[in-house]
Design goal:
4 copies of one chain form a homotetramer. By secondary structure, the first copy, chain A, is mainly α. Helix content of chain A is 77%, strand content 0%.
Chain lengths: 196, 196, 196, 196
């Protein structure tokens, strides 16, 4: 029951984050395609962040599906993740409106990094209260190489934002693509545990 | 269970899309009816888009009610649909504020087209993981002539937006009216399958 | 199941309407209480509309709790109600920013009237698909004198907005107070039906 | 069932309050870190209010988990709490944009105080309809010293805002930290009642 309300609240916050980002796509004054073309960087940032928030919703969904217990610490680890994700609309809008300027790329990477670290903390909290490293959830999460590689790549992206801004942007896109392949580890492992 | 969270998240996003559109209806400076009259095109666009998002919610609701399984691919097909629908407030506001100018009509039609294609993809993903073309869901969806006719009409609307803008607008209204008749196919077919 | 998703979607839309209204309460430029005092009419409009949306949520909650069946028609009657309620933030902001000017009072009353009529239609649709006038739901709704009196009072409020604006405002407040007494009819009647 | 919809609606409103606050963090015009530094007070206010809304969600979640009955009065006590919390984005934005000016600190404290009193009323309503002071819920809530101390501290914060503004800010942060320790009283007491 507790878990149900945690999921419902997270779904609500993620749905709102996903949707209010589109408010940064401000209606232009002109009524022709030229006016629209100026919005292209904002639109591209929006699309990228939409994919990222979608990835978090997807992974959150998979992670929680293997969970039986939540604790007070889990509630706060989850709110911590939502805090970082709630900064996404701001970082997205700032990056889009400034055409991927170096500082905006660094801040966008910082928000991605903070979210990734917060997700990692949440995952570990959930494992701790769901049987520890030998239990189904921990085995389902497994080595989690994507979860470990992503923060390293974000750090490279942040570091390169003032030197090679295009590399920084390319890294953020590449990490999103890496995650787009849906995370079936937990599904598979749990199906294995409960084969009925 | 998975399906429940997919529905909850989609409901959240659709509810927010439906509601933030009204933010484009900006409070006018004057306090008389003349000030209000200037908002009429924005209001009409809002009403049309409200009906469209309502149609998608209705159809999504009916489609999912016949579903037993969701997969990673379904989650992304659903997010893809939500992405297109999330552009509706922008396209609506742009069209309304520019009094249905040609380019804005074309973009509005483009968002409708993208949403229709995304819905079609989602429907096919759901059929694929729910027993294929011979299973209840596929038979319930049936020939889906409305779903096949709509994209064609949107294309006509987009094409005519620079030649006969009024036709383009009339087509978008006509398609909405065509869908307003609620989609009882799935309800009926499933009731037939499970007559208890 | 269907009913559950109708409730969840309505809850989502009502929660957003309730909350985005506060966005009309724009942060003033000054940092003293004088700057705040200028916001008083906007704040009062917000408080009144918060109570109205709260009343609709409460009554919707009670009405649906006595419902067993929903139909395609019910889904649209519900969306029609949500459409009128979605205009509340606009009408509230316009009225507040113009210090209850006559035209804004008339439009506010018009939105209240539209919502009341839409609620009445929804109630009748629900009765029609839940056993008709002799079934528990219809008997629970009963004479519904509040639901019949409110539209009449809103009409008086609209009519008086250009003649006696204060009366118009007083009527809107009075109707809200009349409804604040929670609607226990349906609860009571259903408890009577299922005394276990 | 009734309780479920009360929780869902509250989750929706709290999720939106939490998320729209980030809209006050307006995208700056400059594209460097200097432009970002100007946003620091707004960011700090946002972080503090995020923690406060998170605390309310957490405590609401714990409180409701011990509840079996809701009444019409409870629905309104809950809406009253949501009203005060809905003023948080405004108070947060005003305080942040004016760099914690005295009047803004007093108003922020006033919103915290109103929310605390509203929570106290809700808690007492819930106890009254769930068996009174001798029942599990009342015993789970217990002495509630945090709930009694907080309003006193908010009053000290409000009083000191014009004399010692920094003390006022420090008090609001301290109360948040005091609550961050999750409220396990109800969990523990209920686990004791139903040891299975």
């Amino acid at each position: 029951m507790q878990k149900g309300r945690l999921e419902a609240f997270s779904d609500g916050v993620l749905a709102i984050i996903l949707t209010i980002m589109v408010l940064e796509l401000k209606v232009p004054h002109g009524a022709d395609f030229a006016a629209l073309r100026l919005l292209l960087p904002v639109f591209l940032s929006y699309a990228l962040s939409f994919v990222y928030v979608g990835i978090y919703w997807n992974n959150h969904h998979h992670l929680l599906s293997g969970v039986r217990q939540v604790s007070g610490g889990v509630l706060w680890a989850n709110l911590h993740l939502l805090f970082w994700l709630s900064l996404t609309p701001f970082a997205t809008g700032w990056m889009g409106e400034n055409h991927f300027a170096p500082a905006t790329l660094a801040v966008y990477g910082g928000v991605l990094l903070g979210s990734a670290v917060a997700y990692f903390i949440l995952q570990n909290c959930l494992i701790a209260v769901n049987g520890g490293p030998a239990a189904p959830l921990a085995r389902a999460v497994g080595h989690d190489w994507k979860g470990k590689l992503s923060p390293v790549l974000y750090l490279v992206g942040i570091a390169s934002s003032f030197v090679l801004p295009w590399l920084s942007g390319a890294i953020y896109v590449a990490v999103a693509l890496m995650w787009l392949v849906p995370d079936r580890r937990i599904e598979r492992a749990l199906a294995h545990e409960n084969p009925d």
